[in-house]
Specification:
By secondary structure, the protein is mostly helical. The chain contains 16 helices and no strands. Helix 6 packs antiparallel against helix 14 and helix 12 packs antiparallel against helix 13. The protein is globular.
C-alpha cells in the first residue's frame, strides 16, 4: 500500500475520533461533576502535552523513522482512550490528557500532524503538494464532521435505556481506544525505510529565519483559536443557549462538512491568487462572523454566523501546510513541520484555561470576540510579512 493512501485513511479514522471527543469531552467532564473551569484546564493539559511531545519529535525524532514514530503515537492513542474510560478523578484524567494525543479542537493539534505532513511531503510531487494537503485536510474535516454527528450516540443509547448516560459516554472513549489500534494497523503498511534512504539529522539551516517568523505568527493564530476550541464552543452552546448534546453534535457535523468542502476549493483558489492570499482573504471574513456570533441575541443567528465562518475558516489549512513545506529545503521539512507546530500547540494550550475562567465569570461572549480580533491581527501581520515570499520547491 502506498504511503499517501495509508496516511489519508489513518487521518480519517483519527478525525472521526477527534470529532466526537471534542463535543463529548465537556459533557463527560460535566457528567463526572466538574465545572467549566476544570474543562478549560483539562483542554489546556491536552494541548500542552501535545506541544511537548511534538517538540521532542522535532528535536530527537530524526533518530527514528517516521513509520516508527507514527506506530508509537497510535499505541499512545489507544492507551489514552482506555484510561479516559477507566478514570473518574480529575488528577488521573489530567495526567492522561497531558501525556496522550487527545484533541479537543476542530483541527489536528497532536504529534500525528508533523509526522504525517513529513510523510506526505516526502512522497508528493511539488506541483501536487497543495492538492494532496487539501485532500488530507478535507478527509480530516469530513470525518471529523461525521464524528461530531456520532457525539449524539450516548444520548440515543441513554434514551433507550441501553446504558446510563455516564456509561454511554465512557463507551465512546473505549471506541477511541479501538480506533487507535486500527490506526496502528494502518501504519504497519507504511514501508520501513531502507538504510540508504535514512537521512542524517537535518536541523533548520537556510530557512531558520522564515520558519521562526512563521512559527511566531502561527502561535498568535493558535492562541486565538484555543479560546474557541470545539470542546469550548460546545460548552458555550450548552451554557449560553441550553443546547442539547445531540443538537450540538448535529451542528458540529454541518460545520465540519462545510469546512471539509471549503478545503477542496483552497487549491483552486491558491493557484489563482497564491497561498498567502488564500490564507488571509478567507480568514478575515470568518473571524468577523465569529465576533458577530458572540453578540448574536438568538441561537438561530449565532448558528448561522458560525456556519458561514466554518465555510471560510478552514481554507487556510492546506494552504498553510503547503506554504511551510514549500519555503524550506527538503532536508529541513521534518524540523520545519515540528517547529511550526510546537509553538502553535504551546500557544493554544494557554488559552482554554482563560476561556474556562471567563465562562466561570459569566463573560460568555468575551472569548469569541477576543478570538476573532486576534485572528484578524494575525492575518494582517502574515500578509505584511510574506505576501512577496516565493516558494523554494
Amino acid at each position: 500500500m502506498k504511503v499517501i493512501p495509508v496516511v489519508l485513511a489513518a487521518k480519517s479514522l483519527r478525525a472521526f475520533a477527534d470529532g466526537y471527543v471534542a463535543v463529548l469531552l465537556p459533557a463527560y467532564l460535566l457528567a463526572l461533576g466538574f465545572g467549566t473551569l476544570e474543562v478549560g484546564f483539562l483542554s489546556t493539559a491536552t494541548l500542552f502535552g501535545s506541544a511537548l511531545t511534538t517538540l521532542a519529535v522535532g528535536r530527537w525524532g530524526n533518530r527514528y523513522s517516521v513509520r516508527r514514530l507514527l506506530l508509537a503515537a497510535a499505541l499512545l492513542m489507544a492507551v489514552t482512550g482506555a484510561a479516559f474510560a477507566a478514570f473518574s478523578s480529575l488528577w488521573p484524567l489530567f495526567v492522561v490528557a497531558f501525556l496522550g494525543p487527545l484533541n479537543p479542537s476542530s483541527g489536528d493539534a497532536s504529534v500525528f500532524l508533523p509526522l504525517e505532513h513529513t510523510a506526505i511531503a516526502a512522497t508528493a510531487a511539488p506541483e501536487s503538494r497543495t492538492t494532496i494537503f487539501a485532500r488530507y485536510s478535507f478527509f480530516g474535516s469530513l470525518f471529523g464532521a461525521i464524528g461530531a454527528l456520532a457525539a449524539g450516540l450516548p444520548d440515543w443509547l441513554a434514551g433507550r435505556g441501553a446504558f446510563l448516560m455516564l456509561d454511554a459516554l465512557r463507551m465512546m472513549f473505549v471506541l477511541y481506544a479501538a480506533i487507535g489500534i486500527a490506526v496502528w494497523v494502518l501504519y504497519l503498511n507504511i514501508p520501513a525505510p531502507r538504510a540508504e534512504e535514512v537521512s542524517p539529522a537535518a536541523p533548520l539551516g537556510p530557512s531558520r529565519g522564515i520558519v521562526w517568523r512563521l512559527a511566531g505568527l502561527f502561535s498568535l493564530d493558535s492562541f486565538a483559536g484555543g479560546l474557541t476550541l470545539n470542546a469550548l464552543l460546545a460548552l458555550w452552546l450548552f451554557e449560553r443557549f441550553g443546547m442539547s448534546l445531540a443538537a450540538a453534535g448535529a451542528f458540529f457535523f454541518w460545520t465540519g462538512l462545510l469546512g471539509a468542502t471549503s478545503q477542496l476549493v483552497a487549491p483552486l483558489l491558491a493557484r489563482r491568487i497564491g497561498l498567502v492570499n488564500t490564507m488571509v482573504f478567507t480568514h478575515i471574513p470568518a473571524s468577523l462572523c465569529l465576533i458577530g456570533a458572540a453578540l448574536a441575541p438568538t441561537l438561530e443567528l449565532a448558528l448561522g454566523l458560525l456556519l458561514v465562518r466554518s465555510a471560510l475558516s478552514q481554507m487556510d489549512v492546506p494552504a498553510r501546510s503547503a506554504f511551510v513545506m514549500a519555503v524550506v529545503t527538503p532536508a529541513e521539512r521534518p524540523a520545519a513541520a515540528s517547529f511550526t507546530a510546537v509553538p502553535r500547540s504551546l500557544a493554544s494550550a494557554i488559552s482554554p484555561s482563560l476561556t474556562g475562567a471567563m465562562f466561570a465569570a459569566c463573560a460568555m461572549a468575551a472569548p469569541l470576540i477576543a478570538c476573532g480580533a486576534l485572528k484578524i491581527a494575525y492575518d494582517l501581520a502574515l500578509f505584511a510579512a510574506f505576501r512577496r515570499t516565493r516558494p523554494r520547491t
